[in-house]
Specification:
231 residues, DNA-binding, 7 helices, 6-stranded antiparallel sheet, two-stranded antiparallel sheet, homodimer
DNA sequence: CTATCCATTATGTATAGTCATAAATAGAAG
DNA sequence: CTTCTATTTATGACTATACATAATGGATAG
């Protein structure tokens, strides 16, 4: 073997054997000590390689049981949801932001259910539009729990979007994202300058800080939007 | 301090300080040796904690530059895209599969572009439907590069879906996923038993095995479908 | 004043050894 | 034959140490 193998090379090599069917789905892989002997490195090095293969969803590991190739290698898709501003600027377009409404209300029923709030909770409701080169790109409909984020009471969203404000001011520990397709209603059609009933990509996100609901937001994207991830 | 801190506890504690704004966005964090001294553990342990925080998108690390809290802590969303069968059965519904068409063709232009194929390449084109309790749940429109997967020439998709066949037979190294919203055309409306123009959630996936295009598939979901991720 | 070089430094990776832990298995007891 | 228990074993985690590497920032030369 020789050649000072690092954990990356080991990972690559093990993966190569898996995908070449040398080690097919369900195969019990050699133990870490055996692999370490074969590759001429320390067990910790093999361990890291195998750990990452496990994180990547290629293999499954169990103490004592050893490592085996996953039967259905359903690899995880990971992508990062960028700030709209960054996404628009990355396309070479000019970003513009427009605040539409900004009010304090009592949490509507559906929101209370979604976040686990009491119906009487005071929330800030912010609606705004994000433009790419003057074309409406995304409509943002956000609700912020004022109990969790009292600073939002006084925040000024006329020039800074609530998205950017929150992301730099309020941390969270848990989040839930839902992607779906919906038809544009009259309001959304008008805002995004499209027809009523047009298919709209909808991304809804809720976040919590240790069980405390923080915010819920719905992003309605202009027609033809695609969310792309590579891995 | 005491208490024998493991890398998980260290990770949690550092994250706690970040989210409590003790270490706000952009802050340069203490070096690994300092943290190791504070927590009373080896640098390798701190290293693993910080490594994972970096993987999670919480901090950014650079050699010599040290670690700093990300300005826009855009944490990464990771989805595990399950097999349709598993997804349907997890909902407590009965899974049924129906093959609609299965032919060998020359790659159409759009596919050649998407995957990077020569237009003359022979591909297997498979269309099928996945049902949940007899209701159409997803329409799968798949193309398989026969050069990359010659075994697909003889594969029988009448009872096993191409999705499941591929997932257990053909590995890949790179993939691209696109989520979008589209309107149901006449064909899709009929298959999914919905109206023409209804908003449909569309998931398109392309995979490669070391630069060799393997397959491209479009999943059209029945109306009201949501793709959910928690993290 | 600017461009280049180099020492410094924090992270990146590897090592050998140790102890911990979960789970499979064989063995003992009922 | 079943059930519980003890042993074994592969992975999980940690330590201390060492060297590699990239990038910074200052020193130096032009």
């Amino acid at each position: 073997m020789a050649e000072k193998l690092g954990f990356r090379e080991i990972k690559r090599e093990v993966f190569r054997r898996i995908r070449s069917n040398e080690w097919g789905p369900g195969t019990l892989l050699p133990g870490e000590v055996d692999l370490a002997a074969e590759f001429g490195c320390a067990r910790a090095t093999v361990n890291r390689a195998m750990q990452e293969l496990s994180d990547d969803g290629i293999i499954e590991r169990r103490r004592k049981g050893g490592s085996r190739v996953k039967l259905a290698p359903s690899r995880q898709v990971t992508f990062e949801i960028p700030l709209i501003r960054a996404e628009i600027e990355a396309r070479g377009a000019e970003y513009r932001y427009e605040l539409m409404s900004n009010a304090v209300e009592k949490a509507p029923a559906w929101l209370a259910v979604r976040l686990g709030l009491k119906a009487s909770t005071r929330v800030r409701h912010v609606e705004c539009l994000h433009f790419a080169d003057r074309t409406p790109f995304q409509y943002e409909d956000r609700w912020i729990n004022l109990n969790a984020v009292p600073r939002a009471e006084a925040a000024d969203f006329s020039s800074l979007s609530p998205n950017e404000w929150l992301v730099s001011e309020v941390p969270y520990t848990n989040a839930e994202v839902r992607f779906s397709a919906t038809g544009a209603d009259a309001k959304i059609a008008k805002l995004l300058k499209t027809g009523v009933g047009e298919p709209i990509f909808l991304s809804e996100r809720s976040t919590w800080l240790d069980e405390t609901p923080v915010t819920n937001v719905r992003f309605y994207f202009a027609p033809a939007y695609q969310m792309i991830a590579r891995y």
